Amino acid sequence: MTEQFLSSRKNPLLQQVKKLLSSKKEREAAGLFAADGVKLLEEAVRFCPELHTVILSEGVEAAVPETVRVIRVPEDVMAWISPMETPQGALFLCRLPERKHFSPVPGMLLLDGIQDPGNLGTILRTADALNVPAVLLEGCADPYSHKVIRASMGAVFRTQPVVSAWNEVKDACKEAGIPIAVTALSPRARDIREADLSSMAVVIGSEGRGVRQEILQSAQQELIIPMNPHCESLNAAIAAAIVMWQMQ
């Protein structure tokens, strides 16, 4: 394995990494995404065949395949590229995988407009741990943004995120005979402990507005997570974790 040393911030590759870290449009145009961190790099080496370039600070070591390009940079350059306040000294690039086709299965989670990268990453990490299929509907954060990847602790490498449109999901679930349930605060909502979530597709709504009206109107059931009456709601990632646990 040969290494290349780069010290100029004007280098085209380093400039591109900065753009990939900050722009979904840039990621889609280049067919690449970037992530940071030594632990995440280890996960990418194990589970991401699309890994192709690793950028390391001087003095940082990493075991990477022979086919992967390795770039060395000074610490000040790493600090300039990295989005982290305290860089770990490792950045890497991977090719975006081909979009995975949506296939409806009972006991899956539908994410509607989960915009916070920390919440989305945590949900994907939990879904991977509990082996629950999770589908990203419109309005969700980009699963290949560095913040989502970091919050997922590399789950996006182990289980490829599925992104699909609501109309496609709705029609496919109807054809497969899978009822759609939504988490909602309403008098009609049924306690999740009394429902067979393993046979359903359950929708978790966005942090601010909850589940979209068009999805609410199409759902066969409304579900509620029982909680202290003086509490109004739960964090989206926590609600998703409780639903996924109940699915088991």
Word description of this protein:
This protein is of the alpha/beta class. Helix content is 35%, strand content 20%. It has helices at residues 12-22, 24-30, 38-47, 75-81, 117-130, 146-151, 155-158, 166-176, 213-218, 236-247; strands at residues 3-5, 32-36, 51-57, 69-73, 90-95, 108-111, 134-136, 162-163, 180-183, 190-191, 201-204, 221-224. Helix 5 (117-130) runs parallel beside helix 10.
Chain-wise SSE layout:
Blueprint: E1 3-5, H1 12-22, H2 24-30, E2 32-36, H3 38-47, E3 51-57, E4 69-73, H4 75-81, E5 90-95, E6 108-111, H5 117-130, E7 134-136, H6 146-151, H7 155-158, E8 162-163, H8 166-176, E9 180-183, E10 190-191, E11 201-204, H9 213-218, E12 221-224, H10 236-247
Parallel strand pairs: 1-4, 3-4, 6-7, 6-11, 7-8, 9-11, 9-12, 10-12
Antiparallel strand pairs: 2-5, 3-5
Helix pairs in contact: 1-2, 5-10
Q: Describe the biggest sheet?
A: 7 strands, parallel
Number of strands: 12
- The helix/strand class is alpha/beta
Q: Name the beta content range.
A: 15-25%
Helical stretch count?
10
Q: Outline the low-pLDDT stretches.
A: none
Helix content: 25-40%
Note the run of SSEs as H and E. EHHEHEEHEEHEHHEHEEEHEH
Specify the overall morphology: elongated
How far the N terminus sits from the C terminus, by CA atoms, comes to 45 Å
Radius of gyration: 20 Å
Overall mean pLDDT score?
Answer: 94
The strand line-up of the biggest sheet is: 8-7-6-11-9-12-10
Main traits of this protein?
248 residues; alpha/beta; 7-stranded parallel beta sheet; 5-stranded mixed beta sheet; 10 helices; elongated
